[in-house]
Design a protein that fits this description.
This protein is 25% helix and 31% strand. By secondary structure, the chain is an alpha/beta fold. It has a single domain (4-213), classed as Class I glutamine amidotransferase (GATase) domain (Rossmann fold). The strands form 2 sheets. Strands 1, 4, 5, 6, 7, 8, 9, 10, 11, 12 and 13 form an 11-stranded mixed sheet that branches. The longest helix is centred in the middle third of the chain and has 16 residues, at 79-94. The protein starts with 7 loop residues before the first strand and ends with a helix. The relative contact order is 0.17.
Length: 215
Amino acid sequence: MRGSTDLRLGLSMRVVEATGYVEPRDALAQDWSVFLKRVLPDAHWIPVPNIGKDVSELIEYWGLNGFILTGGNNIHDAPIRDETELTMLEYATRNTLPVLGVCRGMQMICHYYNQSPLPCQNPHNHVATIHRVHLTDNFLQWDEDELTVNSFHEQCVGTGDHFRGELKSFAIADDGLVEGVINAEKTLLGIMWHPERENPASDFDEYLIRTFFSR
């Protein structure tokens, strides 16, 4: 079992354009530093630049042993980010390292397993709102089977009834769309909500993330 003091996390970053002139930049929401200080206070973490396949060399140089794929950018909108995160996933899978995917990060995990996201049919249910999700596979032994989460995504992943492949859904929204996934080895975990945007973080999110990264 990995202790939190041994955890060295790499966080992926979104690609943004500078205002007033052309200069793509990597960016990480400041919420993450506050969130990680609360939820994983003993872990070391660093933002990972979008450099494509070369990121595997940085992972080894920095000795990273866990990853968080953060939100922002739809898949295919920033090819260099797509390539970077896919390389991170390949590295993590090859070395049995944990990866948490948040919103776009969960979509990227699903994309990695050929379960690509599509535009939400009812975007008002998932853009800048809150909604319920139901825990259909309570692998964490949480006391409740229903949560209220935030939602900021225009792309959605499958439905609970038709979700197939090497990933398994564990959280489903009222409209049937998948809101949480995990692989059989329990090394890849994806959630469609943003735990870092809640201050303080919910008890469930704290428990989920601490438990996941301590396995």
